[in-house]
Amino acid sequence: MTRFTFSLVRRSSSLLALALLAGTQGQTATPTAVPTLPPPSALITAQPIGDSIFPALGQAGLDVLNYDLDLFVDRPGRSELRGTVVLTVTATRPLPVLSLDFLGPQVLDVRWEGLPAPYCHDQTAGKLTIQPPQPLRPGTLARVTVRFAGKAGVRPDPDLPIDVGWQAVPAQGDRVGANFTLSEPDGTRTFLPVNDHPSDPATFTTRVTVPAGYTAAASGVERAEVAAPDGGRTFTFEQTQPIPTYTLAIHVNQFERVDAAAVPVGVAGSDVLRRDYFPIGTQADTRAAYTSTGEILKVLAEWFGPYPFSAYGSAIVTPRVPALETATLSTMPVTSSNTRVLVHETAHQWFGDQLTLADWSEVWLNEGFATYAELLWAQAQGEAGEEIVRGWYARAGRSQTRPLVATSEAQLFDTTAYIRGALALHAVRVTVDDAAFKGYLRGWVAGFHNRPVTTADLLAYTRTRLGATAGAALRLWAESPELPPFPQR
Ligand code: TRP
Ligand code: ZN
């Protein structure tokens, strides 16, 4: 039935071509699902979000509020994953179809409010197209259930020499097999059907069932740990503040969970729970970096305002990959277990995880602020910081520069995003005193966490908050094709 539905709609849009292609491998949910033929124009309105770097990602008009995950990792260290995700969705415009990003395992079943719904899963294009009984309208909620099983993919990172997505770390020597997510910018779609764009953050409930001896950890606060068949256990985590899909952490390993004293730097002085996850056998010198986490939270909360989530810590991973700012639980490789990187990832909890990007071209708004936090930390430790800023400027001078808003995938995580981004903030800072600069950083977080941010937002905010001189300084650093002069008071 599904095949019939989609293949009859012969129009020239690429979505249709895609749906047609997928028709041969798409499955009908059950024979009882008799879809009515959608008007062709209906399918044509399934447009991606229109990201300037990743034009195919996401669906325009779709607003996912919550992902409720029930995952089973039967054999840690391998890429097989099975589970069910229930998406609670609404729309900002009428949506005749739902178009989720999904490269991952085979889809077994799709339901709309509990009833079988026709769908097409095009694993090559990475889109799962679902036909609701009637269009999803603004102001209405729907629950969409997707059951899947099979190999979770990874996709080559657009510019780092790694694969993003569901990481499978095979057993080796006395190390047991493990899995974890590493998804920036678009790896979450390798294992979950999602609206895979930072402009649509959502809350997550994550249940992970693992075999005997294993621990699961995920973004959010742990709510339950119950016995599963064969000595396994099911861990439940709740992430009640919305986060971008790429920041979702899920870890499966033989972990030692280490709890530390809560830190009262949350919203309205609330306690932030502190827990770190160390793979059994983690060396003492690796663990040492994480004893500073509480102090880092205090220093950064002083500059940025309340820590946005209810818990914070790190999950340590053994492969040599870059560290990632997964929400409430930074993903920290053994090889990056040092204070500077931890400060950087912790700062991303505000910049990237709470404040989210409107477009991937704006990623310096994450990386520039997180890099700048390294200076703020050093200064809180008594350093003048001058050397750090000089070092940044020298580094920026040695590499190619460009305006801060990126124009290609390759630019996303380059020296400009990190170092010129940090220098741009320093250029703002030197136009005012530190009290004003602190108010400026806190005001940016407080005022802009409810909608995705752009450089234009920051420029306008800078002018109104700090005045024309600061505004002009940021503008020069944001827009000049050349590296501007060294920022000095
Ligand atoms: N945002 C990461 C950081 O600066 C860097 C990063 C970009 C990354 N893409 C990644 C890390 C993919 C891991 C995987 O902290
Ligand atoms: Zn970063």
What would you note in describing this structure?
The protein is of the alpha+beta class. The protein contains 12 helices and 21 strands. The strands form 5 sheets. Strands 5-4-8-2-1-12-15-14 form an 8-stranded mixed beta sheet, with no helix packed on it. Helix 10 (434-448) crosses helix 11 (455-466). The longest helix has 17 residues, at 364-380. It binds tryptophan and zinc ion (ZN). The site of zinc ion (ZN) has 4 residues, from helix 6 and helix 7.
For the structure shown, list the relevant keywords.
27% helix, disordered N terminus, globular, 489 residues, binds zinc ion
Question: Would you kindly provide a brief summary of this structure?
Answer:
With 489 residues, the chain is α+β, with helices and mostly antiparallel strands.
How far is the N terminus from the C terminus? Answer: 69 Å
> Whole-number average pLDDT?
92
Name the bound molecules: tryptophan, zinc ion
What structural category characterises the helix and strand content?
Answer: alpha+beta
Radius of gyration: 23 Å
The spatial strand order of the largest sheet comes to: 5-4-8-2-1-12-15-14
Largest sheet: 8 strands, mixed
**Residues in helix, %:** 25-40%
* Beta-strand percentage range: 25-35%
Q: Would you identify the regions where 5 or more consecutive residues have pLDDT less than 50?
A: 1-44
Q: Number of helix segments?
A: 12
- What general form does the structure show? globular
Number of strands: 21
